[in-house]
Every structure is written in structure tokens, then in C-alpha cells.
Amino acid sequence: MIGEAGPFGFGIGATHQTAIAVTPGIPPYVWLRGLMIEVESGRIMLELGAIGFTIIYLIRIYLALYAFVQIFKLRTRFHRSLAVGSFLYLLGALPGGIVFDVTSGVYYWTFVGLVFVALQLDREALSAAAVARAAAVAQAPAASQPVPARLERAE
């Protein structure tokens, strides 16, 4: 489709099902010059051209790789499992359709958001653990110190 769409494509929405609703008086999809395709990657190529197609798929690959890298950076098991689930969904969505399938798009961006939520929750859990650890260390020497003799007699 690169040869037909060119570097910039036919424009966003050119292959959308309701494009004929905003173009009254023009034969349906005449702007596509007979190029009818149902596969999402082909539709993205027709609408955005080679440049837009490259950008869209680089972002998809980047988000999947980002989720994969976070699996090894997260320290709690729950947050790591969120990242694993998100990575697997994002990896499976690479060849799938998220632009022209509304339900799939909602799932896709939910799993992208889960990666960032897992990162934030992991940071908060680690900082809370560090504060608790610091408080425990600060109280430990005070508890192990002997009580002065003057206080023992008063009790």
C-alpha cells in the first residue's frame, strides 16, 4: 500500500465507515481511487501514509518494550504481574486492530495505563517501606537503651 498511499496518505478518516456522511454529493470512497482494504495496518497506511504508519507502529512497539523493561524494574510481585499482563496484551495487540476497533482500543489504552499505574504504586510502596524502615531504625536504639537509675526508683 506504500506505493498507492504515498508518504502522507489520503488523510485521517479517509477509510472510516462514516466518511460518506460528511461528503454528500460525492460518490462513496471515490477519493480512495478504488483502494478498499479492511486490515487495520492497510487502513492506517492509506490514511496516514508511510510516515504516519511508521510513527504509529513505532509507538506501539515502544509501549510494548517499555512494559517489558518495567517487568524487571518493579520490585513488588503484584506490580510486576500488572506489567507482565500489560506487556502480553500490548505484544498481542501489535498485529491486531486498536484504531478501528473501539473496544480493543479501550483495552489497549487501559493496559498502557496499567503500566504507569504499576510504576506509581511501586514507587509509593517503596517510599512507604523506606519510611517505615527508617522509623523502626530510629526507635530500635531507644528501646534497647537501659533505663536510668533515677527513673527505676521512681517507678
- What would you call the structural class? mainly alpha
Give the oligomeric state of the chains in this entry, treating copies of one chain as homo and distinct chains as hetero: single chain
Q: Please provide the ordered H/E string of secondary-structure elements.
A: HHHHH
Helix content percent band: 55-70%
**Count the helices. How many?**
5
Tally of domains: 1
- Uncertain stretches: 151-155
Beta strand count: 0
**Average pLDDT value?**
85
How far is the first residue's CA from the last residue's CA?
A: 90 Å
Radius of gyration: 28 Å
Strand content: under 5%
Largest sheet, strands/sense/barrel: none
Report the principal-axis shape: elongated
How would you describe what is shown here?
This protein is mainly α and 155 residues long. The protein has one domain (2-154). The longest helix has 43 residues, at 102-144. The chain has helices spanning 2-5, 40-73, 77-92, 102-144, 149-154. The protein is 66% helix and 0% strand. Helix 2 packs antiparallel against helix 3 (77-92).
Give the helix/strand layout.
Layout: H1 2-5, H2 40-73, H3 77-92, H4 102-144, H5 149-154
Helix pairs in contact: 2-3, 3-4
Descriptive key words:
155 residues, mainly alpha, elongated
Q: What can be said about this structure in brief?
A:
By secondary structure, this protein is an all-alpha fold. It has helices at residues 2-5, 40-73, 77-92, 102-144, 149-154.
